[in-house]
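[INFO] parsing input record for DNA helicase II
[DEBUG] input buffer:
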Amino acid sequence: MDVSLLLDGLNDKQREAVAAPLGNYLVLAGAGSGKTRVLVHRIAWLMGIEQASPYSIMSVTFTNKAAAEMRGRINDLMHGSLSGMWNGTFHGLCHRMLRAHYLDAGLPEDFNILDSDDQMRLLRRLIKAQNLDEKQWPARQAAWYINGKKDEGLRPQHIDTFNDPIEQTWLRVYHAYQEACDRAGMVDFAELLLRSFELLQRSKHIREHYQARFKHILVDEFQDTNNIQFAWLRLMAGPDCHVMIVGDDDQSIYGWRGAKVENIQRFLNDFKDAKSIFLEQNYRSTGNILKAANGLIANNNERMGKNLWTEGTEGELISVYSAYNELDEARFVVGKIREWQDQGGALADTAMLYRSNAQSRVLEEALIQAGMPYRIYGGMRFFERQEIKDALSYLRLIANRHDDASFERVVNTPARGLGERTLETIRLAARDRGATMWQASVALLEEQVLAGRAANSLRRFIELVNALEDDTRELPLFQQTDEVIRNSGLRAMYEQEKGEKAQARIENLEELVTATRQFEVPEEAEDMSPLSAFLSHAALEAGEGQADDFEDAVQLMTMHSAKGLEFPMVFMVGVEEGMFPSSRTTEEVGRLEEERRLCYVGMTRAMQKLYITYAEMRRLYGKDNYHKPSRFIREIPEEHIEEVRMKAKVSRPASSGRFSQTQVNENFNQTGFSLGQRVLHPKFGEGTIINFEGSGAQSRVQVAFNGEGIKWLVTQFAKLEPM
Ligand code: ATP
Ligand code: MG
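[DEBUG] output buffer:
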């Protein structure tokens, strides 16, 4: 094997890591400094120079996609066979191990993996079976409790509740849940890790087998490992094993999920003669992007401390765009991507990063309108998300009681005690009578075929849907949607549940209200009710499907899922105080620092060009919110930023929702101004009219000024001049 081939394209520090004598190493380095590249070359080095068999190597990555990429890159370097090498995520590798030793692990051969939705459903059943009130003891919180304990390596018998009655209850649920899983041969995500860890701990011969086998373990993104993963690694790595971990404390972004950045320090303590190697040269980003990111992260106190430099060009400044609302923001981003494409750039080289999933909707709609293919990385399209489908199902039933799919979806969501048996009775009756499920239900109730609890629950559901329609018939679509989300109990159901995911679901439901508020019935659908028109719009958008794998497509993802990736052009959107950092995090220093690290991760994805955008007004849950630009923007050294001026053209004014368009236009005609018009103010300078309310002497206009932000002004006194 030619040594130079393996060290080509590496700097001195990277070479030092790649060609280091066998031993334990920590490679600690900032974003884009080539940590992942070092791991890839190290594996090739181990095989090519140290004559390590692929069978003796295990490499751990954060996502399956990263694992596949790593394999591809090693293959390119080696042209040799990698068969026998273990390469995957912690979960994937533990699964593999449990499959190989299912008997020792006490599992049936065909054990199933329980995904988080399955887990929730099972928990809901068990909580009910324990006669606990679901409102007080939500399944989501049980899952959070149980997964957290498992991540700490704790079984029910290990837990001391200190007579805390609340924890005692959760512990009972944990017990029941574990029994149910064990009986059915089901394993949830946290269980994969814990059980595999226990197997290694308990079974000397299995432990020795793996310790004898794996002479080399390599771990990427180590800063985001949790306790059980760390403990698992320690058992896998025998006395003759060589472990290389790479990570960046500044990119630790999963603390909220139990990841422990302290594991980096623990590695140095626990692994024999572990040495640190620091990489400081960045190869990914331009000077401006890098210095901006360095400047931002310097605001954190909890740091191991390192600095990054680049030999690359300074590149363009970071463009900060102040949009007047989220539609304008989406339009701006799509416009920039269009320019990029016109200059020959590939769509796949552009990425939109946002803090929370709900933000994708406006962006998705702008992309669809522009006819640009896009892909949502590590997530689902807006209209395909569970909670959105739930809410849409209620709306569909309101519009059409005979929609069986919607009926099935929500007849017992939120749970109202309708079991599978009752549903089967309804299905059969519907089939026999050639009726819809709704019709069959009504008939079964009338004929008193169904009785007791089932009948009561079903009747309540029928009445609920009827009431939802009666009570909201007269309301504008967005209020109707809002009421339906509340009165159906969906919102409360998700509010009961704890955790980041539940929060995201509520945000998505709020976003659905915004979507209905922004929705304008298209001309071809003017004969439909706004509700029906919206429902077909949603169905069509959901049906668009992801861009297929080979199609050139814009990449959309949360900042969390962008970890480890890079793109020539990156847009970070919604960088507003309250959105990012999210309002839930600004109270606690620790959480705020984690948000800042997330911002650092986002910025350092960009190779050539970074745009940061924020909206001065964002419509959330049918309400207008005025946000300040994020503190993170202020924390970036000014010399790396340029403000992009607002364009004179406003193609679609934000309709206020309080006035019909005709009314607005009439009122406007009296004032001599129009929406989207450019105006000059003696003090605030140039601006664009974006909204209007009231009439006569009370009339006010909302103007987005170029430098002075957005202001409401009384038209009569404002001394505005048309431009
Ligand atoms: P992150 O912290 O975001 O995971 P990283 O430290 O893993 O980043 P890599 O993804 O390995 O960084 O490398 C960043 C970019 O720099 C990649 O495009 C990689 O190919 C390139 N790169 C790394 N080292 C060198 C080098 N010595 N010469 C040229 N390019 C390099
Ligand atoms: Mg990396």
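[INFO] The chain is about 45% helix and 15% strand.
[INFO] shutting down worker
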